[in-house]
Specification:
Layout: H1 2-6, H2 8-33, H3 38-41, H4 44-55, H5 61-65, H6 67-86, H7 88-98, H8 107-130, H9 132-136, H10 140-160, H11 166-186, H12 191-209
The protein binds protoporphyrin IX containing FE (2 copies).
Length: about 220
């Protein structure tokens, strides 16, 4: 079981992730052609200006108005990438399979950043219950997605600290990590890809056509 989830399953997850993202990208670029305004409205200057404003913490009014969500969102996303990429266990596994290796986080730092991601997921959950405007647009799939993202962090932490049976936990962890990767292209987690395009389009339309700001 261990060889299966640490070998072929990682391959399958990586292929589905890269293939799925490529499919979504090509599909989006093609379907955007059918809309008469998308390509003609696109502007490099206004698109990049908007993207920059939405990637810098507190640069937009919306972020300043909900500063606690902004802090949690940025901390969450930074750790979401930092932890799996620079985790010693992951780097060692990657180096073993492929050869290249790079710097790693210390175990203590990795643990704390993992806890931070889980706390951020709890924050998103509570926010969905507490704010009526967010509750209104929440459906079961939002909870499932949040669980899919939190699961590799919770199970990775449990495996590392040898809570319950180590071997079972590490297998559950690898399966949950693979599920998360494969879910990205086909669920709303695909905002990882679409964020860049929706933002540049909005920035272009607001800047070049309406002469207004979108931040
Ligand atoms: C599918 C491929 C994956 C494999 C094969 C894998 C493998 C592992 C292994 C072997 C460990 C170490 C357990 C120990 O210390 O004994 C680990 C820990 C961990 N992994 Fe993964 N993992 C995968 C995907 C992911 C993903 C996608 C994430 C998050 C996005 C993730 C987050 C973590 C975390 C947070 C820890 C524990 C960190 C700590 O508290 O120190 N893993 N993983
Ligand atoms: C570089 C790529 C990414 C960007 C620019 C991005 C951007 C965003 C933004 C702007 C939000 C809204 C936050 C708010 O309301 O303040 C968000 C929420 C979120 N993102 Fe991402 N994201 C990225 C990648 C990812 C990835 C890879 C995952 C998971 C695999 C992810 C999981 C989430 C989750 C769970 C939420 C919160 C959902 C909720 O409110 O329940 N993001 N992201």
């Amino acid at each position: 079981m261990y060889s299966l989830v640490s070998g072929p399953l990682v391959w399958i997850a990586s292929i589905v992730f890269v293939g799925g993202m490529t499919y979504q990208l090509v599909n989006m670029l093609k379907s955007a052609k059918r809309d008469k305004v998308v390509y003609p409205y696109m502007s490099l200057k206004y698109g990049l200006r908007s993207l920059l404003h939405w990637l810098v913490p507190f640069a937009s009014r919306n972020m300043r108005e909900r500063y606690e969500t902004t802090i949690v969102t940025f901390a969450f996303h930074i750790c979401l990438f930092l932890v799996p990429i620079f985790l010693t266990a992951h780097v060692v596994m990657f180096a073993f399979a492929w050869g290249p290796k790079w710097g790693t986080l210390s175990e203590g730092v990795a643990d704390w950043l993992t806890v931070l991601v889980v706390l951020a997921a709890v924050f998103f959950l509570v926010r969905r219950w507490m704010l009526p405007e967010v509750r209104f647009v929440t459906s079961l799939s939002d909870y499932v997605l949040l669980a899919v993202v939190a699961a590799p962090f919770v199970t990775g932490f449990m495996a590392r600290h040898q809570w319950f049976d180590y071997e079972t936990m590490v297998i559950i962890h690898m399966v949950s990590g693979a599920v998360m990767l494969m879910a990205i292209p086909f669920t709303r987690l695909s905002h990882m890809l679409f964020f860049v395009f929706t933002r540049t389009y909005m920035g272009s339309e607001f800047g070049a056509v309406r002469n207004a700001r979108d931040w």
